[in-house]
């Protein structure tokens, strides 16, 4: 069973791609996370966790859910992490999570895709996106084959700095930077409500026709990237930057 969490579509793309290759089903974890539903999942096929990389680890909201919702059936767990560059030493923490929940860690795949984190980085250009997608598809084919054979994924080598990024830097990021008070809305907002609908945490509500952020943000960029008129900004960091969504779910 493939469990995925996504903000702008990259991890959903990976989940659907792998599901098509191995003949498995996908479940969007946002539906559980929004309402804090920690009831169990059940599958006799290996668990495949498809998630974006947030500050060089899997999203904290996914870690919380996997720590509380029992995964019944198969003992094997694979991780597929999309990223714009590195995943640091995320493997170390993924293995520790498996140990904690009594599962067998089968490895982590790093899938480099278009950068969407416009609160900090430059967003990938359309031409770069095309090249990254071709490389990602090759990578995903290889990952799918290994999963079908129930083989472990190869180790991801990120260098010595990876331990710092996934450790102290991740802690500082979650503590001091993971906030939603810099999101603002411009006068061209049409009150369509799409930002609230797309937020995987249910952190956005429409009040007096405008979005209001409620303080429980994971910086997935779903609200800002889904706005059809680009009325949402993240301080000055997002001004003039391309909004990114992955819409290619055909595999």
Category from helices, strands and their pairing? alpha/beta
Catalogue the unreliable spans: none
**Strand adjacency order, main sheet:** 2-1-4-6-7
Question: How many discrete structural domains?
Answer: 2
State the separation between the terminal residues, measured CA to CA.
17 Å
Q: How much of the residues is beta strand, in percent?
A: 15-25%
**Helical stretch tally:** 8
**CATH class of the largest domain, anyone?**
Alpha Beta
* Topology order in helix (H) and strand (E) letters: EHEHEEHEEHEHHEHEEHE
**CATH architecture label of the largest domain:** 3-Layer(aba) Sandwich
C-alpha Rg (nearest Å): 18 Å
Number of strands: 11
Categorize the overall geometry.
globular
Q: What about the largest sheet?
A: 5 strands, parallel
Describe the structure in your own words:
The protein has 251 residues and is of the alpha/beta class. It has two domains: 2-171, Rossmann fold (3-Layer(aba) Sandwich), CATH 3.40.50.360; 179-234, 2-Layer Sandwich (Alpha-Beta Plaits), CATH 3.30.70.20. Helices cover 35% and strands 20% of the residues. The protein is built from eight helices and eleven strands. A five-stranded parallel sheet has the order 2-1-4-6-7, with helices on both faces. α1 (10-22) links the parallel β1 (2-4) and β2. α1 packs parallel to α5. The longest helix has 23 residues, at 126-148. It is globular. The relative contact order is 0.17. The mean pLDDT is 95.
């Amino acid at each position: 069973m493939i469990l995925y969490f996504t903000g702008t579509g990259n991890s959903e793309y990976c989940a659907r791609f792998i599901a098509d290759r191995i003949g498995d089903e996908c479940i969007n974890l946002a539906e559980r996370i929004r309402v804090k539903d920690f009831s169990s999942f059940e599958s006799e096929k290996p668990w495949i966790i498809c998630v974006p990389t947030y500050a060089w680890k899997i999203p904290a909201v996914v870690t919380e859910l996997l720590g509380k919702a029992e995964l019944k059936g198969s003992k094997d767990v694979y991780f597929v992490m999309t990223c714009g560059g590195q995943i640091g030493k995320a493997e170390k923490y993924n293995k520790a999570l498996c140990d904690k929940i009594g599962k067998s860690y089968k490895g982590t795949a790093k899938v480099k895709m278009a950068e969407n984190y416009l609160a900090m980085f430059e967003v990938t250009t359309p031409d770069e996106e095309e090249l990254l997608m071709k490389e990602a598809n090759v990578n995903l084919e290889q990952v799918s084959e290994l999963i079908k054979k129930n083989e472990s994924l190869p180790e991801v080598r990120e260098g010595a700095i990876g331990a710092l990024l996934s450790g102290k830097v991740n802690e500082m990021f979650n503590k001091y930077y993971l906030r939603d008070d810099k999101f603002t809305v411009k006068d061209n907002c049409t009150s369509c409500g799409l930002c609230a609908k797309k937020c995987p945490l249910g952190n956005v509500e429409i009040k007096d026709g405008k979005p209001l952020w409620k303080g429980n943000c994971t910086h997935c960029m779903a609200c800002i990237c889904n706005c059809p008129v680009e009325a949402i900004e993240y301080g000055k960091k997002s001004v003039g930057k391309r909004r990114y969504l992955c819409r290619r779910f055909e595999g």
